Amino acid sequence: MARKHFAKRKSNDKPTIEHDEKKGGAVHPEPTNVPPPARTSVGSETSASLLVTQIRSEHLSIEDTRPNRRLKFIVATLSLGGCMFGSDTAIIGPVLLDIDKSLGHELEPNEKSLITSTCFGGAIVGCFSGAFISQRYGRKAGIRVGCILNIAAVTLNTSSFSVAQMVVGRIISGISIGIISTIVPTYLAEVAPSRYRGFIQGIWTQAVVSSQLLSYGIGAIFAPVHEGWRYMYLLPVIFPIGLLILVNFCPESPHELISRGKIEDAKEFYRTTTKPQASEEHIAQKVASLCNEIKAPSTDSSKKFSFKAEFAPYKQLIGSPQNRRKLVAACGLMFGSQFTGFNSLTFFSVTLLATLGFKKPEAMAIPLGAANFVGTLVYLFLVDKLGRRRLMLMTLPFIIISCGVFAAAWRNVGVDIAGFHPHPDAILRWAAWLIYSFMIVFVLSYSSAIGNAAWSTELFPMEVRAQGAMAMATSNWLSNIIISATFLLQMEGSSPTWTYVFYGIINCLTTAGVYFGFAETKGMPLETISNIFENDFGVKKAETWQKEHKKGRAQNSEV
User: Fold this and answer.
1) Helix-strand-coil percent breakdown of the chain, rounded to 5?
2) Residues paired with residue 190 on neighbouring β-strands, in sequence order
């Protein structure tokens, strides 16, 4: 049966690429004798029968292929971008505690907030830059630019002797990780077989949390060293250097290649990443399906710059009701994930632990990083089995409970939080240990679901994917700016109790949003996802697809 299923197609028919001089782009005809899968409406009256037909024609041999060595190398290389992201966002915690008077004076809370938040302001600029570079010059070009900027930022930050220099370095660092966070998740979504897409995209967040854990370890090691914060900043430079070198050995994604008219290169990508599991016939069917999905070629970098051409995808993203729903779902989930309160623990965990009276806050932060690491591993192994939506609905209640515990316990801590300076004479109370315990519960719940699930670039079609990823990443960084700039001031001004009441309410709203407005895309080919947003947010349609998909897989296994 397996031999028949993977039998090679004996055909010399090859697709050709025609060029429309008026439109200035490549037109992608479907390869002869290889019909593309039908683009059906999941919400129609005959949805069940149509879905079964669609599922049987959705080139499952490509979408089910396990990653081979070539694809694993590509994913491992791109994961270095996640390490850049994680180390830049996490290292600031131990740095702010250790920096003392290295910048000329002891830093005040507003200066700490400025140094933290300016990175995220730069990241928003980086998101727009990443979308532009990715659309016009390709994914790899954007990654190279991000790496070079990050190396420059590390140089500035490590050699800082003033708040102004540190702020400039943090802005450049933010631009670099804004570019990387826009491009790399998109790249991963495009190279991943749909059956393993959740796992492969989870590698991005696993890299983020692994580097965050490493940052906590580096912080603990260099805390006793004179001006050890400079070493904390310097060591993570290995990530952009490694990515800058290794990305040259990675191909562009097949979606990117087809959008530029490089059909044979796209086929070669699948030959090197799906063989020997997939046959030439199934590779041709997959490429035909992508040609059908990608309606217009990307901007040609050799053509003269035109504002109208460059901003056409943004108009399409906002102008289409279908795309607007995707935008609301993706950006809404990203906002919700950031306003859980998790980032307050990431950025200021060391400061909070010191305020609570822990004598070695850098060391006490390591279990939080370990919990983040373990939770992400749980997500990696469950997401393609249970799906993102189910995982989020299972874990968000624990996040809400944790916020309630924080709100109650901070009233009984018994320390003065004014200025957030460590209190050497503070006596640890049961409330401090309770807060610390539920910090771990909170981090485990966050990282095992919504912290990873929020990166949902696959919702957007190819023609606006770069812009959709930009909008989603911008939502991430805008949320980070608000949290990093206001959290300490909110804790000091309105009290820790009311701060966590606020985050608890946000988490309740996020849970409702996931239940009513986030569709499960587990196992769906990228070309199929667009159909479920035709009339609404597609929650019910996605459920129907999942049921029929399961039946279709069972029927295929019997053939």
Assistant:
1) 75, 0, 25
2) none
Task: Compute the CA torsion angle 6, 9, 10, 11 (nearest 10 deg).
Answer: -170
The torsion angles phi and psi of 362, rounded to 5 degrees, stand at: -60, -40
Report the amino acid identity of residue 424.
P
Report pLDDT digits (tens) over 308-364. Answer: 667 788 888 888 888 899 999 999 999 999 899 888 887 778 788 888 888 888 788
Give the range among 103-117, 144-158, 178-192, 305-319 with minimum mean pLDDT: 305-319
Cβ–Cβ < 8 Å for 185, 169: no
Torsion of CA 144, 145, 146, 151, to 10 degrees: 90
* The pLDDT value given to residue 148: 97
The token pair that represents 213 in the structure block: 């854990």
Contacts of 10 (CB under 8 A, 6+ apart): none
- Count of C-beta atoms within a 10 Å radius of residue 320: 15
Percent of the chain with pLDDT over 70: 81
**Cβ atoms of 74 and 203 closer than 8 Å:** no
Dist. CA 278–CA 145, nearest whole Å: 35
DSSP 3-state assignment of 534?
A: coil
In a domain, 344, yes or no: yes
pLDDT, one tens digit per residue, over 439-456 is 999 999 999 999 889 888
Whole-angstrom Cα distance, residue 198 to residue 186?
Answer: 13
Q: How far apart are CA 363 and CA 218, in angstroms?
A: 10
User: Residue 278 domain-assigned?
Assistant: no
pTM for the predicted model, two decimal places: 0.71
Q: What is the rounded distance in angstroms from the CA atom of residue 451 to the CA atom of residue 454?
A: 6
Q: Containing domain of residue 211, as a range?
A: 69-252+312-517
Residue with the two structure tokens 């049961």: 430
Any domain includes 333:
yes
Q: Are 130 and 470 in contact (CB under 8 A)?
A: yes
CATH classification at residue 461: 1.20.1250.20
Contact 153, 176 (CB under 8 A): yes
Examine residue 24 and state whether it is found in any structural domain, yes or no: no
Neighbours of 424 (CB within 10 A): 8
User: Residues 67, 203: contact at Cβ < 8 Å?
Assistant: no
Q: Where are the beta strands (DSSP E) in 272-326?
A: none
Classified as helix, coil or strand, 184 is helix
Phi, psi of 333 (to 5 degrees): -65, -40
19 forms bridges with which residues in the sheet? 26
Q: What is the pLDDT of residue 416?
A: 64
The pLDDT of residue 508 is 97
Q: Identify the CA nearest to 471 among candidates 356, 319, 328.
A: 328
Radius of gyration of the chain (CA): 24
- pLDDT above 60: residue 31: no
What's the domain count of the chain?
1
